[in-house]
Amino acid sequence: MTQFLKDLISIFFYILSFLIPQSKESVLLYHSISGMNSKQDSFNLNISTELFKKHMAYLAGLRQKREFLVTFDDGFENFFTNAYPVLLRYNIKSILFIAVDFVDKKISLSDFCPANVEIRPLSWEQIKEISNNGIEIGSHSLSHPDLLAVDSNTAKSEIAGSKERTEAIIGKKIKYFAYPYGSKRSYNSAIKKIVKESGYEKAYSNIMGFNTKDTDPYDLRRIRIYTNDNMFRFKMKTRGAYNWVDFLIC
C-alpha cells in the first residue's frame, strides 16, 4: 500500500479521533536521531534532529491534556548527542531500550539491521549519566535476535542476561523490555512468559496501537515514528490515526 493511500485513510481516522476519548497514555517509538542522509536510511528509522525537536515541543504543549511515553530502541550514540538534551529540556517521560551486546561492541548494527550506514552505540558511561538524569533504561535483549528463531535456553539468556548485565552496571532495576523487531511474528506467549519470569514488569512490541488499563502488560503497543513523519503526520499518529495499519498484517 502506498504512503499516499495510507495517509488518505488515516485522515479519516484522524477526524474521527476528535469524537472519541483519547487513550490516557500514548507510547511513541523512535530509533535514530541525527542528520543522516535519507539515502543511507533504507528503513526510514532516522529522524532529523530539527524534526525531533518539533515533535517534542508539540508533546510538551499537550502535557496538560494527555500523557506520552517516548521510547528509543537499540542504544545509538546519537541519542546522547541529539535526543537526550531535548528530552531534558521538555521533561519528556522516556525509556531507552538498549541491546547490550551492541553497547559492549560485541556486535555492530549490521548484525541485526542490514542498514547502509554504521551507527555507533552508546557507552556505558553515557547510559549511566542518562539513567541518573531521570530517563528509564530498559532491555532490548543481548544481541537483538529474533526470539522465535532461537531455542528456549538462548531466549532466556537473551532476556534475563541483558537485564542482569545492565543492572550490574547502572545499579538500578531494569523493569521494562522491548521485543527485538517487535512484530507479532517475533514473540509469542512462551516468550512473554520468559520475560515475566525474568522479573520485568512490562514489555513493549512495535505494533501500532494504544494501550488501556486492560492491555496485557507484556504485550504493550507503540506508535512507530518514521523519517518522513512531518508535523501533520506526527499529529495524526499521536491521535491513533495510523493504528489501523497493523491490523492488515497482525
Structural summary, described in words:
The chain is globular and about 45 Å long. It is 36% helix and 14% strand. A 5-stranded parallel beta sheet has the order 6-5-4-1-9. Strands 2-3 form a two-stranded parallel ribbon. A two-stranded parallel ribbon has the order 7-8. The mean pLDDT is 95. It has 8 helices and 9 strands. Strand 4 (67-74), helix 3 and strand 5 form a beta-alpha-beta unit. The chain starts with a helix and ends in a 12-residue tail after the last helix. Helix 2 runs parallel beside helix 3 (77-90). It has helices at 3-17, 49-61, 77-90, 100-103, 124-132, 152-170, 189-197, 231-238, and strands at 25-30, 32-33, 46-47, 67-74, 94-98, 136-139, 176-178, 202-204, 223-224. The chain is α/β, with parallel strands linked by helices and 250 residues long. It has one domain: Alpha-Beta Barrel (TIM Barrel), CATH 3.20.20.370.
| Major β-sheet annotation | 5 strands, parallel
Order the strands across the largest sheet as they lie in space.
6-5-4-1-9
Query: Would you tell me the overall average pLDDT?
Result: 95
- Alpha carbon gap, first and last residue: 15 Å
Q: How much of the residues is beta strand, in percent?
A: 5-15%
Structural class, by secondary structure, is: alpha/beta
The CATH topology label is TIM Barrel
- Topology, number of strands: 9
Q: Estimate the helix proportion, in percent.
A: 25-40%
CATH architecture: Alpha-Beta Barrel
Low-confidence stretches: none
User: What CATH first level would be assigned?
Assistant: Alpha Beta
CATH superfamily: Glycoside hydrolase/deacetylase
Shape: globular
What is the rounded Rg?
A: 17 Å
State the order of secondary-structure elements, H for helix, E for strand.
Answer: HEEEHEHEHHEHEHEEH
